[in-house]
Design goal:
The protein is built from four helices and no strands. It is an all-alpha fold and 113 residues long. It has a domain of 69 residues. It starts with a helix and ends in a 5-residue tail after the last helix.
Length: 113
């Protein structure tokens, strides 16, 4: 059955007063060589996972880390994170979280005496 036929059938069923929903599964080939690109949605996902959304406890350290790395400017907020540097997988987010933890420990370590 073609897409046009399915749409036509759905419209006819609705016209007859039937409630119906349509769910299609589409399988597209995945290019393994092309990395996933971050979007604003990815930024928000990462900030929430890092507990750095507005009002969350890690916001200041995340802002400091992003600024230190040059991924945001001094007057910018974490939501303005340079998309090229936003993790797009759980594994990449875990690595970033580890890097942030080390950054935070280093900046609070006592200096040489």
């Amino acid at each position: 059955m073609s897409i046009d036929q399915i749409v036509s059938l759905t419209h006819e069923l609705k016209r007859l007063g039937c409630k119906c929903s349509l769910s299609l599964s589409v399988h597209l080939p995945i290019d393994e060589d092309e990395p996933t690109k971050a979007t604003m949605k990815t930024v928000l996902w990462a900030l929430n996972r890092l507990k750095a959304a507005p009002g969350q406890p890690s916001r200041d350290v995340i802002r400091a880390f992003l600024f230190y790395r040059g991924w945001i400017q001094a007057a910018e907020e974490p939501e303005e994170w340079d998309l090229q540097h936003v993790p797009t997988s759980v594994e990449a987010l875990k690595q970033l979280s580890s890097d942030i933890l080390k950054f935070d420990q280093d900046r609070h370590a006592p200096g040489p005496s």
